[in-house]
Amino acid sequence: MFRGTFVTIVQAFLLVAALATAGTSAVAEPRNKTARKAPEPEVTLTGPAVLAVVSLRDQRISVYDAAGNAVRARVSSGQTDYETPVGIYSILQKNKDHYSNLYDDAQMPFMQRLTWSGIALHAGALPGYPASHGCVRLPYNYAEKIFGLAKIGTRIIVARENIAPSEISHPLLFKPTASGAQASATPIGYEPDSEAGPAPFMPDLRNWPERQALLEQLRAVASTKAAEADAAAPELDELKKALKEREAARAKTAKALKRAEKAKSKADGWVASVAKRAAAAKTDRARKSAEAEAAKAAAAAEKAALAFNDAKTKDDAAGAELAQATDAFKVSDAVKRKATEAAKEARRKTLPVSVFVSLKTQRVYVRQGHEAVLDSPVSIANADIPIGTHTFTAVDYKGNGDDVRWNVVTLLPRQADDFDDDGYSRSRRTTSGADVPPQTDVVAAKAALDRITLPPEIVSKVSQYVWPGSSIIVSDEEMSKETGEATDFVVLISGEPQGGIKKRPRQQPNYYQYDPYYDDYYYYGDRRRRPQRYTPFFSFW
Fold first, then answer.
1. Torsion angles phi and psi, residue 480, rounded to 5
2. Which end of the chain, N or C, is surrounded by fewer C-beta atoms within 10 Å?
3. pLDDT, tens digit, for every residue of 294-347?
């Protein structure tokens, strides 16, 4: 009886276990299917990416080329308290094998940095809602393919609502000056990034040989200036070495002079002391003793004086040689600095230019090659009325290459019911699928430009270098503190959650300048190459 009861119990236990396992499988299978619902799209851009729009509401990214083609994918942005801030960014650095220096050395494949405080695009886990610490996670295959299409400087717009760029024309949008170049250059084809590393930003000028010829002329000037800077380096190094030798020699003679001066002072003091004793002597014996000592003191003083004069002569000579070496070094250093600055300026002329008009500061700022060039007061009509935030991007030339095609993306103003108390609710966080986003309202963007009068010197300077990739940003906001060394403009929208920025201290740009004139000399940093590792399911990005 006991045996039969035991068998019955075992059979019952096995039945319960089987049912539990089946239940687990029934639950797990739909989760796996859900994870596979949205396939990663094939990249079909016909050229480099000119801008990307990340929609926080829809948890999607759209990357656009100059022709307006777009490739889209689902994303996961910053979770509550670590929100990816709504705003305007650009790619500052690229590293396909990046590891986080904030979150347990987590793997961040195909990282494209947006801020030096740690906001970036990269491949990562996609649970279907905001779950990162501020970055924008992408599907792995999508991140890999987009990595080669986007360049240093590609504009990235993080918007609350999904919005697509619209083509726009307006008198305020810059037109290029005449190229003045012969159409002899061979039009180039677009080349995505190679395994050797990220390519520099290069305008796609395959259809514009005159513009390509002008670009090659400017690059030739930059190369010449760079060669001049390089030629000045060896002489400067020799002069620097000679200067250090003269400084060491002068330090040695100065030390010897100080010792001689101290010895002379001591000998002179001895002479004075003996003379005082002789004058105060009361007996002949005391007087004769003082006079004998006075002779010795006088001899010591004479010897000390000769040593002092010799040390001073040597120190004066060493000082003169040091002054001569210093002057020679300063002259050579000035030549080198001037040549280096000229080379940098020539290099900047080959790169897109960015203009930022701020209603808050009533100024216009210009940056080129991720460096500040100039800023000036700007006239904005009805300055007490908001102007909105609009990003205008030069995507290509048109006509005979004497005009530019521009598009615009407007960040829509926040409505009162856009957020729940804790940010985006779970129901709003789900993806909206591959729906085509609405186009930007061109009328509102033109109305913003109508209110702006740019200084003539700004127009004249910028019009010389309107390469595809150039941009104009108009905003009610001022530039973010993230705008600094080695960045383009970063503009964050006030009133939006910014946890992903506020919880990250801004770091010093980390870049490796391996070819300062023809390669991606800005921010190809963090060159760590580590073996691929298994990433746990619950690891954080």
1. -70, 160
2. N
3. 888 899 999 999 999 999 999 999 999 999 999 999 999 998 899 888 888 888
The continuous run of DSSP H or E covering 107 comes out as: strand 107-113
CA distance linking residue 374 with residue 327, whole number of Å: 32
Backbone φ and ψ for 455, nearest 5 degrees, come out as: -60, 140
- DSSP state at residue 351: S
Asked if 390 contacts 445 with a C-beta cutoff of 8 angstroms, the reply is yes
Contact (Cβ atoms closer than 8 angstroms) between residue 160 and residue 412: yes
- The CA distance from 147 to 153, in Å, is 13
Task: Report DSSP letters for 312-361, one per residue.
Answer: HHHHHHHHHHHHHHHHHHHHHHHHHHHHHHHHHHHHHTTS-EEEEEETTT
Alpha-carbon distances of 498 from 39, 54, 129, 410, 494, rounded to whole Å: 30, 15, 17, 19, 9
Burial of 4 (0-12, 13-18, 19+ CB in 10 A): exposed
Q: How many Å apart are CA 320 and CA 313, to the nearest integer? A: 11
How far, in Å, CA of 253 to CA of 237, rounded? 24
DSSP state of 440: P
H/E element holding 275? helix 209-279
Given pLDDT bands bounded at 50, 70 and 90, which one contains residue 429?
Answer: very low
Would you state the pLDDT for residue 519?
A: 29
**153 and 201 Cβ atoms separated by less than 8 Å:** yes
Instruction: Convert the pLDDT of each residue in 12-68 to its tens digit.
Output: 555 544 444 444 333 333 333 333 444 555 657 888 899 999 999 999 999 999 989
